[in-house]
Structure formats: C-alpha cells, structure tokens
Amino acid sequence: MATTQLLTGDPQAVELWEKKAWLQTMQQTYIGDLFDNGAVYYVDKFLGKDAVGDRLNIDYIGRMTGTPLGEGETLDGNEQALDLKNFQMVINESRQAIKFPDRGIEPQRTNIKFERVVNELIPQRAGELLQASFFNQAAGSNPTSFTCTTDGVTYATTAHKLHVQGHNTPVAPSSNRITRAGTSVTTDQGLASTDVFSYGLLDVVLEKNDVSLQPIMPLDDGYLRMYIDPYSFTNLKRDVTSPIQWGSIALSQIQAGRRDNLLEDRYMDSARRMVECGVYQNVKIFSCKDVPYGQNSSSSAVITTVRRCVLIGKNAVAYGSPYGGRATDNTVPLKIVEQLSDYGKYKGVGFELLHGLKKVIATGGASTPEDVGTHVVSVYSAAH
Predict the structure, then answer these.
(1) What's the pTM?
(2) What is the reported pLDDT for 342?
(3) Pairing relation of β-strands 178-180 and 374-380?
(4) Which among 10, 88, 108, 219 has the fewest CB atoms less than 10 Å away?
C-alpha cells in the first residue's frame, strides 16, 4: 500500500514553517498592528516572480494650486504645469543563521531542545529588524552610529545600519512634520529636562495636523497611533501641568466600572503584548522602546536623552517584497534555510529577509511635500 508522507525536509513543510514564523513575527511586534491597519502601503509592483529588479520609482502628481481666473481674464497663457514628483525605494536582503549539534553526545547532555529554541529565535529576530526599521524610517532617524534599543547591537557603518532602516536611508522629517517640546526649541540637542511628553504637547501636534493642507489620515480602525518610549510614558503618567492628565483619565475608567482599566492592567493588547498608554483625542498611545533616539542637527550624533516619538497614520511607510508579506499572500518575505554538516552531526538554520521599507514622502516638483503619514515629536527622555 502506498502512503503519501510530508516529512520535515519536504519543501512544502518548509513553506508552512516560513509562513508560521512570519505570522509569529507579526503577532509579536507593534509593526504587526500597523501592517494590519493600513499604516503600511504595499508596493505591489515588487510582488511576484515576474517582478524583477531591486529599485522602484513611483511617479506622483502634486496638488493643483494657484488662484483661479474669473470674468474678463485670459486663461490662455496662464496655465499651470503639472507638479511632477516621485518616490523611490529599494529592496535588499538581511541574513542570519545559527548552527547547533543535532546528533551525538551534545544533545544528550542537556534538556535544551536546540531546534525548538531556534524556531522561536528566528521570528523574534526578524521582528526586531522589521520593527526597528519601521520606527527609524518613520522618525527620519539616521545618526552616525547608534545602539538599537531592541537587540542591544551597535550599528555603526552605513551597510550595517541599513538592516535596521529597511534597506533605505531614512529621510529627515519634512518641515511641518516635526514638533519639539519646549518653547522655541528648534533642534533635538536644544531640549531641556523639562521638555517632556504630555497630553498638552499632543494637543499641539493634533492642532498642526488639523490645519495642514495634507493632514495625516487615521488608520483603518479609525484611530491614529502615537508611539512613545517607556521613559516618556512615565513622564505622561506623572504630568500634573496639562489641563487633562493621564491619572484623571485612568481613574475615571475605574469609577465607570471598566474592568480593563489602565491603572490595573499593564498589557492592554495581549495578542501582541503591546503596552497601551491610553486613548486620547482619537489617538491610541503605545509605549515602545524601539522609538529612536534624538539626533544632533550639526554632527548627526545620537542623543540618548532625547527620543523621537512618532504619530502614525495611513500609508506612513511603503513596503515591498517579491514574496509579499500580508497574511493573504501566498508567500512571505521570511525564508528559512536548513543545512546539515559533518555527516548530519551539526545543523544550521538560517533566515533571509528580502524586503524594502521606506517612509512615504514624494520628492521633486515645484511644491514642498509633507511626509504622508508621520509626525515626529521630539522630547527629552531619560531614566527616572
């Protein structure tokens, strides 16, 4: 009798593992929530086996401006030229691997299941690279050298930094898409210890968005996202100067009988283990240590006592990969490779991420464009 088997070495089994690992990556990170709710614009031209090349140039037409003409005025000769703009991004690869003893005496000496551990580490590491890339892009962060808050690794060279910048050099925030705490502060290095995150500061940011000619639009669930670092969350909770304060909102939830209130519950989104700081003015606020450090405007050196918190809306960042990335895609950008050596005694498991990620901002043309879905909020932030 013939039996059809699907063994662990079968290519289909690997594909299933890859998709499972990718879904784990999305579920364990803040970026999964952003991918699911429209903060990421998928570049479909990169998708599929026929999508060759590693660069994409997307043409974009700016808004029509200028004063219309009326009765008695001549339109001929007073036409406008098209405001031609473009958005460019590239894709590239990030690879890492682990080798471990798969047979023999070494596995016998320990209760550690090496392969099981590796299967957990790969999605975790892929998630770290993606999440750091998203926030570095959104914040326009490109210091000369920095230590990533997620993995503790120092990225000092241009080639190394690109692995946590989505393989595209971040672009500084556009002129109307950055707000700094403090009166008349124009640089990150100018922030003082009193220039911390508060609801009052968020009011200013939302006011700027309301009067913008190109406002940041809410995500698919109807909310904007505000990502602050853990030190800024502490400052928000301790703030007693703003007209509306975090403690008052949290206490009112208890008084209203809410079971899942912010004073008692630490993780408000258990599926992704995201620390929710609350909802204010239709903005969901989250605490995330991947929020980038500040950057010196003269030397581009990192400022570890400043954080670039960031407001995120629709189509904030573009993402491209020939393997897709959405849960509905047939393939995923996280590829798993297994390799045996020394007659099967040692096993290596590696992963490859083939993708590109870049903040959406159209360049070129006559008018000055704004970042489409991001607003940076630079604040002083240090351990308490």
Answers:
(1) 0.86
(2) 86
(3) parallel
(4) 108
Coil, helix or strand at residue 204 = helix
Hunting for tokens 């707000």 — which residue is that?
A: 179
Query: Which of 218, 141, 144, 204 has its CA nearest to residue 176?
Result: 204
Model pLDDT for residues 150-200, shown as the tens digit of each residue: 788 899 999 999 999 999 999 999 989 999 998 899 999 999 999 999 999
Please give the torsion angle defined by the CA atoms of residues 298, 303, 309 and 313, in that order, rounded to the nearest 10 degrees. Answer: 40
Tracing tokens 């892929």 back to the chain, one arrives at 126
Q: What is the pLDDT of residue 7?
A: 45
Q: Where are the domains of the chain?
A: 12-62+82-380
In Å, the largest CA–CA distance within the chain is: 95
- CA 197-208-85 angle, to 5 degrees, is 115
Identify the weakest region by mean pLDDT among 40-44, 124-128, 326-330: 326-330
Rg (CA), the chain: 24
